[in-house]
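[SOLVED] Need 3D model of a two-part complex

Original post:
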Amino acid sequence: MKPEESATTGADLLVKALIDEEVEVVFGYPGGAVLPIYDSLFKQNRLRHILVRHEQAAVHAAEGYARSTGKVGVVLVTSGPGATNAVTGLTDALMDSVPIVCLTGQVPTHLIGNDAFQEADTTGITRPCTKHNYLVKAVEDLARTVHEAFYVARSGRPGPVVIDLPKDVLMNKHDYVAPKKPVQHKSYRPQVKPDPKKVEQAIELIAGAKRPIFYAGGGIVNAGPKASKLLTQFVRLTGYPITNTLMGLGTFPASDKQFLGMLGMHGTYEANLAMYHCDVMINIGARFDDRITGKLAEFSPKSKKIHVDIDPSSINKNVRVDLPIVGDAGLVLEEFVRLWKAKQPRTDQKALKAWWAEIDKWRARNCLAYKQDKETIKPQYALERLYHHIKDKDHFITTEVGQHQMWAAQFLKFEQPNRWMTSGGLGTMGYGFPAAMGVQIAHPDSLVIDVAGEASIMMNIQELSTVAQYRLPVKIFILNNQYMGMVRQWQELLHGGRYSESYMESLPDFVKLAEAFGAVGMRVHEPAKLDETIKQMIAIKKPVIVDVLVDKAENCFPMIPSGAAHYDMLLGPDDHAAKPVSEEGMVLV
Amino acid sequence: MQTATSSHTISVLVDNEPGILARVVGLFSGRGYNIESLTVAETDAKANLSRITIVTTGTPMVIEQIKAQLDRLVPVHTVRDLTVEGPHIERELALVKVKGTGDKRVEALRLADVFRAKVIDAKMDSFVFEVTGNSDKVETFIGLMETLGLVDVGRTGIVAMSRGGEAL
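Solution:
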């Protein structure tokens, strides 16, 4: 046998490498530069390819897949526009630390730099929006690069990795290189085990707290389901209150009495005031994002802060902390639980009782209250009813971005991690629907619901074709107020009610739209008929769009106006007149 | 909040691969950090390593961020802040072209001697000097040449190393 016959093409090597990395699904869209890969996919049946209708949706679908399973999501797109269309998804995955490997086609190596057809400087364009990227210039490097990319994507703080693959590299032949386990990367070795001395100090600080609060984020989701169990165990051992970030919802059971709800700009009154007044803050896997801190100068001024993060660059970035612990949230929590049990520290029961009494007073304000009447459905009511009907079913929620997203975070309760997929850092409208497809692919028998707004859903509406093709029974639950609601809310609060370009003209008939794609469409505007509609939606084993016509003027409260401190919350529609937003706050996003 | 800024010299050991400089420079521009000087060249051909020396300014919090962000880049092996890690030496090389005749030419040559600058090109009406030293010395020399017919300057930017026997 001649050597070139025993060797394999780059495209075949790639597919083999993906299989060795335990990839089951690839979300992609073909094109000239990746034809060899599509040919290799055609000749095998280990990898399933899901054909999306836009490359951005491929990345979001892979994100949904990754966040709901803990595995690396894989994307395959062509050169030029294929790669540039993926950029929003990649940036989204970078901001929210989602492990993605994105394979992009590239023109053949001898044409790179010639402005060839469908050529783009993909590694140049994606450098700032990926954790790392590679241009594979020789087929010898291909398999090794793929293995390295998976290692980088899933290790440390996870993130998206791009591998740019020139067409000639895909067609040249070479022998396969299997992945080395365990991986010993020459330069990238993130610290996962915490410094034991710092863990001891943390336990001491936590045990001595009089007004403590746990503040837990998406890092715990990324550390795996065990980390959430350990967090729950540790928080219950201490008896302290806990709040979650948007990305951290589900890491602690929402039904637990110790849970104060989400914190931040649209977080609960009790969570934000507890953050402001606490004396010890235990941040695990969150990054002091500006939606959380509000006005930095007045962020939790009286507290000692412990910050557990796997990424050293998150520490002291926005907020100076007293005790940083670099490490994997799961491993740190394991140590916390072990030490706490060993030491059985005596906490200050009297002070804690007073602290809880204060928290209960804040809770009694009932900051999420709204007034439902018989005429129009309030968006909050729609979500409360939705939750009522799904809570005992195996379900996953994704969202788009805007008011509906914040209401979903407030009114849907998450008892487990990996059940809540939302675009937190980048705030990408159009994320939720493709993400829901990815979740549904990973969990074919579960109930997957995209809570959407009528504006966001239009941004990736073409994916109705994908759900039709693969018969994905994704439910799209649109809270339709005919406005870009969050834009309208800010215009009302900050720009004198001049609703510049935020009204959604010429919306489609969502019921007919659903039918055009072979899905089921429903519309409801009477509060009395809402329950029945939701029940029907759940019962239909097909993709469904529910167009819920909600109150057009409803605003999302509580709200910390931009540039304001945690104690400066607007609690309802009657609250904003007294507190005009500062000029400093106006320039903030 | 600490707001006083200070200058730091940071040494970074990286894989010598395409795009690494773009990664480092992109990090600085993307996050709004300053680069006062940056030098880069391969330093270990066998291990395929390059050394980047960056002089930057910022508040202590920003400097800490810069180091953490650099360290987070996948092809980065080591990040060292020479300014805080003890005594170190910094050197720069400049090529300085001076054009002139008569007294000015003689004075330029005399000053070059004082600064231990080497003449590496000479024409009847011009010199190119090579001067090395810390930035202060290099700047002083260039300043003096301004009155004596300075026409062109090229500077390498700072390379730096810690004192004593320890490697990066």
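Edit: The mean pLDDT of chain B is 96.
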